[in-house]
Amino acid sequence: MADLQTASGAKLYVSAAAPTTHDATGFAALTFTKVAKVSDLGTIGEEYNEVTFNPLDERETERLAGSYTSGQIPTVYGYDKDDAGQGILETNSGNNTRLSFKIELPSGELHYFRGRVMGNILNIGTIDNVLTKQATINVQNGGLGFVVV
């Protein structure tokens, strides 16, 4: 059985370029910029809508997986106006441009995907808070899914 791991050491990278192919080779050929001071990457993966069917000759409702969304990632990071990765997120917030993303887990496993930045909100908080921003990333892979290496 594999050992558990924490998220400590996970990293987020962004690129304004699109891969030539939606696979490990296509994404690996891109130049990515690290987004500094990320404190929360939320959850990633497809989530399916439930489709139900009630056959007349059975009492039990059949439940199937229907359409899906690839999710929304509420990325939180310590605000640094001079960070290039944060700048790419801010510049592309709300403009409907699909960016390329790479999440690197502490184990070295990579998750590549495409997405749009739907918001980039400054959280000022209280005297005992760090200034943070939350960039909401809507994953939009064009039906091709995540690429995991």
Give a description of the structure:
- With 149 residues, the protein is mostly beta strands.
- Helix content is 9%, strand content 42%.
- The chain has 2 helices and 10 strands, in the order βαβββββαββββ.
- The protein has helices at residues 24-28, 84-91, and strands at 11-15, 33-34, 38-40, 47-53, 62-69, 72-78, 99-104, 110-123, 132-139, 147-148.
- Strands 1, 2, 3, 6, 7, 8, 9 and 10 form an 8-stranded antiparallel beta sheet that branches. A two-stranded antiparallel ribbon has the order 4-5.
- Strand 8 (110-123) and strand 9 (132-139) form a beta hairpin.
- It is globular, with a radius of gyration of 18 Å.
Give keywords.
single chain, mainly beta, eight-stranded antiparallel β-sheet
Largest sheet: 8 strands, antiparallel
Stretches where pLDDT is under 50 for at least 5 consecutive residues are: none
Structural class: mainly beta
Q: Please provide the count of β strands.
A: 10
State the helix count.
2
Helix content: under 10%
Q: State the end-to-end CA separation.
A: 20 Å
Rg for CA atoms: 18 Å
Please state the oligomeric state of the protein chains shown: single chain
Order of helices and strands: EHEEEEEHEEEE
